[in-house]
Amino acid sequence: MFFKKKQIEKIDMNRLPVHIGVIMDGNGRWAKKRGLPRSAGHKAGADSLKKIVTACNKMGIKYITVYAFSTENWSRPKEEVEYLMNLLLSYLRDAENTLAGENVVIRAIGSRAELSEEIQEQIIKTEKFTANNTGIVMNIALNYGAREELTTAVKAIVEEGISVEEIDADLISSKLYTKDQPDPDLLIRTSGEIRLSNFMLWQLAYSEMYFTDKLWPDFSVKDLEAAIIEYQRRNRRFGGV
Questions:
Q1: What is the pLDDT of residues 134-144, one digit of tens each?
Q2: Which of 41, 116, 171, 209 could tie 27 with a disulfide, CB 3.0–4.6 Å?
Q3: Can you spell out the DSSP letters for 158-170?
């Protein structure tokens, strides 16, 4: 009798992406399809995130960057923004008890100045609490926008008085939020949208893109495995032949 190979067994554990970027899209549509408020979709999306980060950590993936709240998301209805901020706060608090226990290092990337004092304090607390963990590093892109990130990097270079001759790609990379990390090997975007939405524009230059119609709350560990299998099928050329 022949048994069908489990999907995870098709993954070459020696060729895993080191860093995965995720645009978690479709929470609102997920809720609408079920006749629920958008807040229910965001809550379901947060639950999904915990499962995916835990699965990546168990697989041995080193970094994951998730797009939680963009610089453009402030234009959403006030009630939704308030709910998202409260959800993010509770997620960070809960992470100390759940994801931290899974040996996850949690970092927030993005501009913190616009966030409430309470959220800023919780970010510092959570980062400190998980700093000595040795598992996957989860970057939560919070009030993040790639154009803002690059603008901040350029300003830093100008303020330091660095000469034009000294400016190169490595220098710019060293001024970004992810300066001490490798660029993503794989970008996953859910919900059928095929665009980058101002996410890691510099770092994604040579990343493999994986788009799925699945809405983020429905994105499962099996879907993650399928994305990694597809990534491993591809021949990364980094601009070469």
A1: 999 999 999 99
A2: 41
A3: HHTT--GGG--HH
